[in-house]
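If your schedule permits, I should be very grateful for your opinion on a structural question. What I wish to show you is a protein chain and, alongside it, a tokenised description of its three-dimensional fold. Would you kindly read the sequence against the tokens and tell me how you understand this chain to fold? Here, with my thanks, is the record as I have it:

===
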Amino acid sequence: MENTGKHLDRWNNCLQIISQIVEPQHFETWFKKIRPVSLVDSTLTVEVPSDFFREYLEESYLDVIKKTLKRVIGADARLNYLIRPVTNQMPMRLPEGPGNPPVNKSVGISSYQPSGNPGPFVYPGLQKIQIDPRLLPVYNFSNLVAGDCNRLAISAGNDIALNPGKTPFNPLFIFGGPGLGKTHVANAIGLAIKEKYPDLVVLYVTGNEFKTQYMDAVYVRNKLTDFLAYYMKIDVLIIDDIQDLVGQGNQTAFFNIFNHLHQNSKQLILTSDRSPAELQNFEDRLLSRFKWGLSVELTHPDYATRLAMLKARAFREGMNIGDDVLEYLASNIQTNFRELEGALISVAAHAALSKEENSVELASRVTRKIVGIEVNNVTIDKVQKAVCDYFNITRESLLSPSRKRQIVQARQISMYLCRSMITNCSLSSIGAETGGKDHATVLHACATVADLMATDKTFKRYVSDLESMLAPSVR
């Protein structure tokens, strides 16, 4: 039988005892947030903010809780947990849980004729198949923290979701370094399209998977025509990491699929770790088609965006991490979202397992040894300052259009060092920060420096000296 009203009294009695055992700060953090829900016979049900919160309680304070419950409720005391729904917490724009994966309708696959349509999962006699969209529900727009680094891609994605295949953004080519959210944005567009147009057939596939399917269709099943027919039935095709699509055969197949889908106003969304102009070993006819629509770069998130992401993720997971720790992580990990999340999880896990308090000192120790934020602290600003100091020139001269030999040489070395020493720094980013140069100029500068280093000992010493000056930043 439930003892109406007794659960609150009994839990308050428990809190009084626990407060005498646990340190005040830990008591405030981990016990004040527990809400009593009901007391049925000897079973007390409480509500906690998250599963992470529950795991930490049981890992750190299980013995205290057990003894206290037995003292207050009796020898048969039991404790049940309820995870507090996000809707019961303070209103915020938060990452959402996985939810239900979208489902495509069944589509008919016609027998392929020389000019028709084909796919690797189509077998003789099979008239209708259901294509799994392969979208991850957690990668939606609600879970995406927007900032200057990705605002254009998100805006274009929302426009596409309203009218897929009918906007000027076809194809949408999203490029940038690893961990900047390319897969998240592409998935979010697919999910938004499925939500608004449930009957459209959406498919997410990686460049490697497409290549493997092609090889299986050609060399194992002898079903190239089915392979083509399968992909030509897609209404929204998302190919992640298109840079992996190397090889003449699969590029020819993709060229035919691309043309068919584009001509029939089907939406194409492609992601890559580099811009179309920087892709190597791709046919020119494919590269020209990649540039038909909108190419948008995802850049490194600024401080405000990094901090907003950390706060959202910490709140979602129920992590009790102070703003000073989040601000430390946001200030020191400037590379990408993936490393930020890894650092956050590492700090929370170390605090829980070692029973340490979350602090800036702990965050510094964990990120230095585990995440490695000090492995590469070189920035474009640091490179440019080092070059200016070394050659005794002003920053204004370095970034100016001056064609003086010394200035040109220093500018080229600066771009070369940025490319070689800064992780995930694109040619377009370097050019934009070097007086507004385009990627082709940066590429030419890097090639020129590499050639001169191989033939001119004095020039090579310049570069080696600068690398040594910058080396402390990469240890």
User: Anything to note?
Assistant: DSSP finds 19 helices and ten strands in the chain. The CA atoms of residues 399 and 436 lie 8 Å apart. The first helix runs from residue 6 to 21. The radius of gyration is 28 Å.
